Amino acid sequence: MSELSHGRALAWLAEQAPDAEALVFGERRCSRGELDRRTNRLARAYARLGVTAGDLVTVALPNGVEFLEACMAAWKLGATPNPVSARLPESERRAIVDLAKPGLLVGGEPGSYDDHTCVPAGFEPNEEDGDAPLPDVVSEYVRAMTSGGSTGRPKLIVERTRALCDPEKAESGMRAGGTTLTPGPLYHAGPFMTTWQQILCGGRTILMERFDAEAALAAIERERVSWVLFVPTMMQRIWRLPEAVRDRFDLSSLERIMCTGAPSPEWLKRAWIGWLGPERIWEAYGGSERIAGCMISGVEWLEHQGSVGKPPPSRRFEARRGDGSRCEPGEVGELWMLPESGQGSTYFYVGAEPKADESGWETVGDMGHFDADGYLYLADRKTDMIVTGGANVFPAEVEAALDAHPAVRSSAVIGMPDEDLGQRIHAIVDTADAVLSETEMREHLADRLVLYKIPRTFEWVGEPLRDDAGKVRRSALREARLA
């Protein structure tokens, strides 16, 4: 079948099997037909409020059916969804709205954002907003994700892809008609994209309000989930469950577990491969900009342990030194990328400028190296790198070693000013209710890190340091401690 607009694809699927489930959220089970009819009504309501083709529709709602209905209603009008966290501080949300200038903010109180039209959470169309099909229209840009809030300067990443799909063709290793579990927040690109990829190829998505390790395993068993996207934090929390709890669930329906969002610690990847087999464990790397990316299966990973894959020839990738010269195999540098269709062909920013050279190669600040076979190994963000005593230390490596301790739930490593070393490595360690001594932790790290990478100071906390998308705001943690 040729590609259809997202709105028409949903309508076609509803015509084929109107009662087939498209979405499960808690106790609610939403059929294709119901989702199609409700979003027709919602699109008419949005149009009545002034939304037109080409507008952004900022969606500030928690995970739920309402979030997905708002996005589909936007597509049915030729508009572009702009998902944001419903829990953003008011100053950050206002900054995003000022940037996006949306035709509508969904999840905001009317009158609270100057002249921007808002509808609150729980908004329902009027009786006169009928559910008959709307004129077919294609959104020029499929989504506008948000990034950069940790710096206080948010930006929009608008993908230069039209909202088109083939409803008979699965993507990302999914199966047409399969079942995907979405445990992460929909305002992040990975969960957002994969949720819709499964629904729009005739499958269904099991959406969690927020991640819970045991509940995720229960959902996989209950709903016979075939595909799931986890971030390393989620995989670690599942692995930390007692073995008897993990083994209680039937996970035989799983065909692929995709890990993305942050570098996956090698110890964690080995644990999951040993548990569920290498054929089912996959990892992907690539930013919301979609400039370049790569993917690796567990089978291939065992031959290139620690790698996130070998970029395809169509996506040019290289690691560079600070002077712009290309790194040798094994040498860590800043990652630069160029898509096959040239600079600016995959996205554009609102509120920021890309970091690019005169040839159009771009970087998003990630660090890594390639081996002699062309496989990529991630290090960390350039802005997060710690220079201590003249040596470069990547926080992700130290955090992976910390997290390998069974009493550690999450960790964050930051550089703090030091008169002697320039920066000292400071570890913030979340042990929940466990009691862990500094001596015990140092002994644990001594088997995993060279001496200069072991933190000089430790701080013990009892709350998770990463959100449900596996993200940690190291800059905010550092600023709070400097203050």
What does it look like?
With 483 residues, this protein is of the alpha/beta class. Among the domains are: 263-382, Luciferase, Domain 3 (Luciferase, domain 3); 385-482, ANL, C-terminal domain (GMP Synthetase, Chain A, domain 3). An eight-stranded mixed sheet has the order 3-2-12-11-13-14-15-16, sandwiched between helices.
Sequence-ordered SSE layout with sheet pairings:
Blueprint: E1 4-5, H1 6-16, E2 21-25, E3 28-31, H2 32-48, E4 56-59, H3 65-76, E5 80-83, H4 90-100, E6 104-106, E7 118-119, E8 144-147, E9 155-159, E10 164-165, E11 179-182, H5 189-199, E12 204-207, H6 213-223, E13 227-230, H7 232-239, H8 243-246, E14 256-259, H9 266-276, E15 281-286, E16 293-297, H10 298-301, E17 316-320, E18 333-338, E19 347-350, E20 355-356, E21 362-363, E22 366-370, E23 376-381, E24 386-388, E25 391-393, H11 395-403, E26 410-418, E27 422-430, H12 438-446, E28 457-461, H13 474-482
Parallel strand pairs: 2-12, 4-5, 4-6, 6-7, 11-12, 11-13, 13-14, 14-15, 27-28
Antiparallel strand pairs: 1-10, 2-3, 8-9, 9-19, 15-16, 17-18, 18-22, 20-21, 22-23, 24-25, 26-27
Helix pairs in contact: 1-2, 2-3
